[in-house]
Write a structure and sequence with these properties.
Blueprint lengths: L3 H12 L33 E14 L6 H4 L5 E13 L4 E10 L4 E9 L3 E25 L2 E28 L2 E21 L3 E22 L3 E14 L4 E3 L2 E5 L5 E14 L2 E14 L16 E15 L4 E14 L5 E6 L2 E8 L5 E15 L2 E14 L6 E13 L5 E14 L6 H4 L6 E2 L6 E15 L2 E13 L5 E18 L4 E18 L8 E20 H4 L1 E22 L2 E6 L3 E15 L4 E16 L20 E15 L1
Parallel strand pairs: 22-25
Antiparallel strand pairs: 1-2, 1-32, 2-3, 3-4, 4-5, 5-6, 6-7, 7-8, 8-9, 9-12, 10-11, 12-13, 13-14, 14-15, 15-18, 16-17, 18-19, 19-20, 20-21, 21-23, 23-24, 24-25, 25-26, 26-27, 27-28, 28-29, 28-30, 30-31, 31-32
């Protein structure tokens, strides 16, 4: 293809810092030797004034399950309306302002306002609304009233959803070689989410959510001809407005999420020396949690007084040794120092008090990551890359205090073939470490043969192949396939093997100047095996878990109708996920097989639209959207299906949802 060299150039620019990136804009062309006095622009339009468009939409929703709102934008059943737009104002003095909006008036939407002097300062205001839905009309025999969960013969109905309302303010100022920025935001989160407790039998209930998170970011940056640096502060403050929950016969049965805050100070910089670029960052942080604890017999602390100090650092270097060879490397360091309270606590063993006392153990973590890589251009259109990554982790009071991860990878890229781009990546990784100990501090109630998958020895082999082909100027084809296998050969109890493979196919076709179409499909399979023990000794059962995911989509648009005023189109998406678990139980030499808690879901989503241009400035668009959704989770059971257990009922989904929208768009000129 004719743009191979341009892609390489663009990639090099994208990898560079904005301060040091080359600028090939038309405005920076050298025109000293060009006589332009007789030049005339017949199509130039002044960029000052207002530009953009505003869209007003109104329609109708037909839904009987609020889960459909995740796809349709609102759970309102009936009439709906929304405002969207993108307007920009450019003043002759350099002042500019921008307003962006998306689906204002619906449950999920945002607005962004900004204004200032181009290249000097800018103010901005952001408003976001995000609402996610799990289930509607959930039934529970528990009523929540001012922190008290009260059982009742009548059922309480509510919706499981989470509503986030976020408002942010920001200011940026840039002058010559320096600049500053300040950003503040506040997010209020409300709703209900599913939760559970045991007292003494299992109880599932809707946990109310009402919290506020404030975020403050500020910084100053300096830059020169071949360097830049930035000093920044990031602060987060979380406040939970829901207190501990109680039952009529016991207070503070369910502890609330504690208030907390986190602070970070960061110093980063970059320096370019000829064909070598160096950058680094050091970040010091502190996380604080100082809430009152629920008091019970044997608890010597009134409040937690939690504090964790963090230190992060990074240094990276990339150098063009020759026009063919580039070398790079980086070092990352992370330290997590737990300074929280310690005290002597009474020990419990399977809900019974042992009488022994032991001190809680704050766990620390220290991680070092080393990476080296090389890229060599064998010939025009042929490039070979290789690298080695090493991660060393030290943990205190852990089943395994040290782990070492090694990863060796190689990539081969071919761009020399006409209309074909080929990428191949292979990878081998393994994890080892110190002796695995099932100590009293960490797993006295666990099988000594148990190996946690993120600590256990592991061998991993992976392969990825990608090809992009343009057989004609009207078709683009992309295929990606990948395979990875993890083996835990030394694990007797726990995850013993995992396999992950799949493919992606994308086809874009321009049939003629009026008709465009696309088709895509992807599948992924994740198969894993784990071993367990009912007898608290060697393995006597195994699980074979098979997960499968499918996504298929297609679309077609037809323009040029009614004297090039009408565009019609259709889009369709099918998604399916399946999780099957087969349990092998061994009694002597007998293998008893049974299924366990399978999960299945699918959805069909379709959209049809007609976009008609009333004039150069006005347009009407009629859209119809449809969703068919079904899922079944064995963990969801009816309110009275299991004796002695309080549940939230069968909250699986099985519905059809429809939406019709008519939108009017006006373009500013």
């Amino acid at each position: 293809m004719s743009f191979k060299l341009n892609l390489i150039t663009i990639s090099m620019i994208a990898m560079s810092s904005p301060v040091m990136a080359a600028n090939f804009a038309v405005g920076n062309a050298n025109m000293d030797s060009v006589n332009t006095k007789n030049y005339e622009c017949n199509r130039c339009i002044s960029s000052t004034g207002y530009q953009g468009e505003v869209t007003l939409a109104a329609g109708y929703n037909d839904i009987n399950d609020i889960h459909a709102a995740n796809a349709l934008g609102t759970d309102n059943n009936g009439g709906i309306a929304a405002v969207s737009g993108n307007i920009k104002y450019q003043g002759e003095s350099g002042y500019e302002a921008k307003i962006q909006a998306y689906q204002l008036g619906m449950d999920n939407g945002f607005a962004h306002l900004s204004g200032g002097q181009a290249g000097l300062y800018e103010f901005n205001l952001d408003i976001d609304s995000i609402k996610t839905y799990q289930a509607g009309d959930v039934q529970s025999s528990l009523w929540h009233n001012n922190g008290m969960l009260t059982p009742s013969d009548s059922l309480n109905e509510f919706d499981l959803n989470q509503q986030r309302e976020k408002v942010g303010l920001g200011f940026e100022f840039d002058q010559d070689f320096y600049g500053v920025f300040v950003k503040y935001s506040q997010e209020d989160k409300t709703g209900y989410k599913s939760s559970s407790l045991v007292s003494p039998s299992p109880i599932n209930f809707g946990l109310p959510t009402d919290s506020t998170t404030q975020q403050l970011d500020a910084g100053i940056h300096l830059s020169g001809d071949n360097w830049l640096t930035e000093l920044s502060y990031f602060g987060s403050y979380y406040e939970n407005n829901i207190d501990n929950l109680s039952l009529p016969y016991v207070n503070d049965m369910y502890s609330a999420t504690p208030d907390n805050q986190a602070h970070q100070v960061s110093l980063s910089g970059q320096y370019q020396l000829h064909r070598t670029v160096m950058n680094g960052r050091i970040v010091a942080g502190r996380m604080i949690q100082d809430e009152d604890l629920i008091q019970m017999a044997g608890n010597p602390l009134q409040n937690w007084d939690g504090q964790i100090d963090t230190l992060d650092g990074r240094f990276a270097l990339t150098s063009m040794i020759t026009n063919r060879l580039r070398l790079g490397g980086s070092i990352d360091y992370t330290k997590r120092d737990n300074q929280s309270s310690t005290a002597e606590f009474a020990q419990y063993n399977f809900n019974s008090l042992t009488g022994a006392f032991r001190q809680n153990t704050p766990r620390d973590l220290e991680r070092n990551t080393y990476k080296v890589n090389a890229s060599y251009r064998i010939a025009s259109g042929y490039r070979l890359q290789a690298g080695y990554d090493r991660k060393d982790v030290d943990r205190t009071f852990s089943d395994r205090e040290q782990t070492n991860d090694d990863n060796l990878w190689m990539k081969f890229n071919v761009r020399a073939l006409d209309n074909v781009n080929v990428n191949l990546k292979v990878e081998h990784a393994n994890r080892s470490g110190s002796e695995y100990e099932a100590s009293d501090l960490t797993s006295s109630e666990s099988n000594s043969l148990l190996r946690k998958y993120y600590l256990a020895d592991r061998d991993r082999n992976a392969l990825e192949f990608k090809i992009v082909h343009n057989p004609t100027d009207w078709m683009n084809l992309g295929i990606t396939t990948r395979y990875a296998k993890d083996e835990y050969d030394d694990t007797k109890i726990g995850l013993t093997e995992s396999e992950d493979y799949g493919y992606d196919v994308n086809v874009n076709i321009q049939f003629n100047q009026y008709i465009d179409g696309y088709v895509f499909g992807s599948q992924q399979w994740i198969n894993s095996n784990q071993a367990g023990s009912q007898s608290f000794s060697s393995s006597d059962w195994q699980d074979d878990i098979e997960d499968e995911f499918i996504n298929i989509g297609t679309g077609l648009s037809y323009s040029g109708l009614m004297q090039d005023r009408l565009i019609v189109g259709i889009d369709y998406l099918f998604s399916n996920s399946i999780s099957d678990t087969l349990v092998h139980s061994y009694i002597g030499s007998t293998d008893t097989r049974s299924t366990y808690g399978d999960y299945y879901s699918y959805s069909h989503s379709a959209s049809m639209y007609a976009d008609y241009a009333l004039s150069e400035q006005m347009a009407l668009k009629l859209t119809y959207r449809y969703e068919r959704y079904f899922d079944t989770d064995a963990a969801n059971v009816g309110v009275n299906d299991i004796a002695g257990m309080i549940t939230l009922g069968d909250i699986n989904h099985n519905y059809n949802a429809h939406q019709v929208m008519l939108a009017f768009t006006y373009k500013l000129r």
